[in-house]
């Protein structure tokens, strides 16, 4: 236990007025916990260890798991061409793109939410209102028609559109709504009943509202995000149920051992100097010969990171119901 780093983390969280939860476990033992802030500031409902938080792009892991389950059921393979499974009829999308390319963010496809083109000071606007973005196919009208950014399999380029496309394929092949497939086919068998995919109007009691900043009069993020997950974001999770998801993944309770190993295999280099890579639906940190998968998520009113090491049995989670909460403390948190 590195008590000095934990003290530094606490000091930084206090200075930044962190709102959310930071928790670290080693060998199923709690070694660090920080909880501060309110689920609902207007009603003064405090955050607890059972609070449900939005995890933004952490949702991509759920989408990847659903795809993996369908692969284990022999519905298609990692190297199936996505156009053969569902044709978006967008001419600019390369017909050679496979499931593997979408899961590893190496499709080269343009993105409806290209983070290289975003300006944090300008609210995101689509031709389709956020309240009408409920199911994955609702996103198709806002999909990018721009030309391919690169050849499939050539380079890593983070792509939200690719995971919505995967969610569409989940619905098309399973004949089950994406939300229901995640909640009923992935989470429920693991005993995960509170966390999952919900419509904004149906969030369970104990879900934290998202706030744009730390000021008392900060607006919420309602109206600034899709009202339900399209596959690239939108899930909510509690700390304990996220741990269950991680452990079930490595216990091969969700997808096969063969696919788990494929998910945590390096498929793309992000920054080799810092040993950061990408697998299938997972970010990967390499240290010596050990690979630790982690999740990242950020949206207006949301910041999130979590990791789980199958080697050291270390589980970390930092989640905030503000836009910059986790990023304010990330420099220390990622090294504890």
Give the helix/strand class.
alpha+beta
Strand order of the largest sheet: 2-1-12-11-10-9-8-7
Could you list the spans in which at least 5 consecutive residues all have pLDDT below 50?
none
Mean pLDDT: 95
Number of domains: 1
* Helix coverage percent: 25-40%
Q: Count up the helices.
A: 9
Query: C-alpha Rg, in Å?
Result: 19 Å
CATH topology: Beta-lactamase
What is the string of helix and strand elements? Answer: HEEEEEHHHHHEHHEEEEEEH
CATH C-level label: Alpha Beta
Strand content: 15-25%
CATH architecture: 3-Layer(aba) Sandwich
Major β-sheet annotation: 8 strands, antiparallel
Counting DSSP E segments of at least 2 residues, the number of strands comes to: 12
Distance between the termini: 9 Å
Backbone shape: globular
Could you state the CATH homologous superfamily? Answer: DD-peptidase/beta-lactamase superfamily
Question: Your description of this structure?
Answer:
By secondary structure, this protein is an alpha+beta fold. It has helices spanning 3-15, 59-72, 82-85, 99-103, 160-174, 178-187, 239-250, 257-263, 325-333; strands at 20-26, 29-36, 38-40, 45-46, 53-54, 236-237, 268-271, 276-278, 283-287, 290-299, 302-309, 314-320. The strands form three sheets. Strands 2-1-12-11-10-9-8-7 form an eight-stranded antiparallel β-sheet, sandwiched between helices. It is globular, with a radius of gyration of 19 Å.
Which key features would you list for this structure?
single chain, 336 residues, alpha+beta, Beta-lactamase, eight-stranded antiparallel β-sheet, two-stranded antiparallel sheet, 9 helices, 12 strands, 26% helix, 18% strand, globular
């Amino acid at each position: 236990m590195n008590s000095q780093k934990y003290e530094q983390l606490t000091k930084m969280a206090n200075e930044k007025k962190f709102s959310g939860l930071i928790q670290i476990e080693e060998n199923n033992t709690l070694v660090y916990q920080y909880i501060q802030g309110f689920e609902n500031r207007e009603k003064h409902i405090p955050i607890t260890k059972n609070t449900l938080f939005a995890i933004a792009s952490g949702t991509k892991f759920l989408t990847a798991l659903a795809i993996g389950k369908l692969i284990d059921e022999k519905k298609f393979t990692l190297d199936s061409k996505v156009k053969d499974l569902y044709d978006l009829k967008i001419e600019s999308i390369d017909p050679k793109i496979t499931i593997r390319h979408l899961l590893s963010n190496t499709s080269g496809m343009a993105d409806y939410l290209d983070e290289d083109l975003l300006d944090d000071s300008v609210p995101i606007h689509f031709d389709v209102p956020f309240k009408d973005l409920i199911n994955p196919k609702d996103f198709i009208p806002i999909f990018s028609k721009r030309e391919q950014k690169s050849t499939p399999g050539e380079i890593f380029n983070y792509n939200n559109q690719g995971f919505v496309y995967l969610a569409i394929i989940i619905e098309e092949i399973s004949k089950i709504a994406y939300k229901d497939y995640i909640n009923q086919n992935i989470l429920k068998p693991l005993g995960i009943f509170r966390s999952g995919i919900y419509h904004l109007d149906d969030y369970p009691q104990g879900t934290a509202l998202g706030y744009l900043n730390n000021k008392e009069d900060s607006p919420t993020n309602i109206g600034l995000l899709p009202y339900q997950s399209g596959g690239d974001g939108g899930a909510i999770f509690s700390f304990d149920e996220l741990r269950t998801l991680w452990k079930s993944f490595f216990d091969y309770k969700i997808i096969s051992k063969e696919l788990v190993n494929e998910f945590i295999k390096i498929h793309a280099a992000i920054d080799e100097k810092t040993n950061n890579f990408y697998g299938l639906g997972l970010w990967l940190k390499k240290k010596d010969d050990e690979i630790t998968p982690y999740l990242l998520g950020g949206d207006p009113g949301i910041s999130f990171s979590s990791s789980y090491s199958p080697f050291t049995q270390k589980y970390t989670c930092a989640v905030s119901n503000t836009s910059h909460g986790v990023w304010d403390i990330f420099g220390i948190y990622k090294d504890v």
